[in-house]
Amino acid sequence: MASLRNERIAEQVRGELARLIRVETSDPRIGLLTLTRVKVSPDLSTATIFWSPLELEDEVDPEEVGRGLDSAAGFLRTRLAAELSLRRTPSLSFRHDRSIEEGSRTLALIRSLPELAETRTEDVTSTQASSTQASSPQASSTQTSSTREEKGKGEGYGQEE
């Protein structure tokens, strides 16, 4: 049960922090970002907030954004305590979440491989051909049974038990 409670609190912290960062912080270093997840310790003393910039990687210095978030941590914790009804407000620790950037890079590398693109095209073509062949007998048997039903109304044809 404690883990369900921690997950619920983590989601509340994430939602409220996202609003506070967007509305109440004015540090130009922070900019546009998304809070990807929040991890709360079992005793609720600390919360690790993982963030990722929404702007292009070339336009943002993650270290600078991290410094901006760290400098706003005290203010954000105070505001969080006022908004959430928790006995103890966790101390906030911000971490840059690189998983989105790494996933984008990996996907770009995969898409840039020419032999993989050819294989993908061949796989799609062979899959379409086999599905057309497989669906063809089905379609004709469906037509046959529906024709029997239409022809044999009242004669006992096409009735299944």
Characterization of the model:
This protein has 161 residues and is α+β, with helices and mostly antiparallel strands. The chain has a domain at 2-98: 2-Layer Sandwich (GMP Synthetase, Chain A, domain 3). Helix content is 60%, strand content 14%. The protein contains 4 helices and 3 strands. A 3-stranded mixed β-sheet has the order 1-2-3, with helices on one face. The chain is elongated and about 60 Å long. The two termini are 50 Å apart.
| CATH classification, class level of the domain at 2-98 | Alpha Beta
Number of helical elements:
4
**Strand order in the largest sheet:** 1-2-3
Classify the fold: give the CATH topology of the domain at 2-98. GMP Synthetase, Chain A, domain 3
pLDDT < 50 stretches: 136-150
Give the oligomeric state. Answer: single chain
| Shape verdict | elongated
Give a summary of the structure in a few sentences.
By secondary structure, this protein is an alpha+beta fold.
Supply the key terms:
alpha+beta, GMP Synthetase, Chain A, domain 3
What is the topological layout?
Elements (H helix, E strand, L loop, with lengths): L1 H23 L8 E8 L5 E8 L8 H22 L7 E6 L2 H14 L1 H38 L10
